[in-house]
What we know:
It holds the Pfam family Aldedh. By secondary structure, the protein is of the alpha/beta class. It has 2 domains: 7-256, 3-Layer(aba) Sandwich (Aldehyde Dehydrogenase, Chain A, domain 1), CATH 3.40.605.10; 261-335, Aldehyde Dehydrogenase, Chain A, domain 2 (3-Layer(aba) Sandwich), CATH 3.40.309.
Amino acid sequence: MTISHPTQAQVLHNYIGGHWTPSEASETQEIHNPATDEVLALVPLGTRKDIDQAVEAAAAAFPDWRATPPQERARYFFKLRQLLDENREELARLITTEMGKTLDDARGEIQRGIENVETACGIPSLMMGYSLEDGAAQGIDEEVIYQPLGVFAGITPFNFPFMISFWFWPYAVACGNTFILKPSEQDPMVQKRVFELIEQVGFPAGVINMVNGGKEAVNALLEHPRIKGISFVGSTRTAQYVYAQAAAHGKRVQASGGAKNAIVVMPDADLDMYLGTIMNSCFGAAGQRCLANSLILTVGGAHEAVRARVVEAASRLKIGMDWQKVQNLVLSSRLPRATASLPPLRGD
């Protein structure tokens, strides 16, 4: 729901140039706890002016950050890794509260994000170039040096509101670039907490920035002439749009879309061993991830036994807010599509 009238809910701020900055947006969107429908906060639907401010800050920070030796840049990530580890339980509970996956699932997401920070700590070795005598031809030596380019941006999805941002910005920033993150407007609160920790680390102002928003903010990132590249994860349709628009504006692009997955169960499959894997694939992260299984293909005599076991296991899933077995849809707008599939399932 998009609203523009006053409310008691907290309005999230952007993080630009080392400061928490109110958005220029006139519209906000409610962030709901999907288990209780409680309004947790309001996220501003950021404008092109917000993006312009972030790009200006990132571009201004780039020369000094680029000139910082890689080993010095890496030290910031050692500090960040420690803070993320110390606050991992709080971060996981934020994910469960605003996104709806189980707490154990959220804890796993935090761990994967931290692992990317750990990898970025090794950037002095990872970004080493090489040289080779006569590497190009006889009498022509070859030398390769990896150099940062400038301002990059990331656009991340709702289903992994913590982890996926860490696929992108730690590597870009550790390599000497500056960065702007646009988290999903559906569940941006965990990134707010992450940027509070980033602020504690003490990265130079403008090196890493965050702007909240929806499509207008995305388009501004894709079209801005001073942004060198875009990283995106989301639906296939949106990935195609991001790739086309960013490429048309001369940017490097990596755009990852969704997937359609199937599980094939053979007649000799050990269901006691694999039932947990099937259920996790179908329902893990509340069924809202690109690797979620949407089709079980049974072969021969496996059909009846597999159907009975899956139905029985699914009947034990709990919907609600109990921190341990919670599974919720992050958006009420997805409910019609989900419930539309229930009558034929009951009929089977």
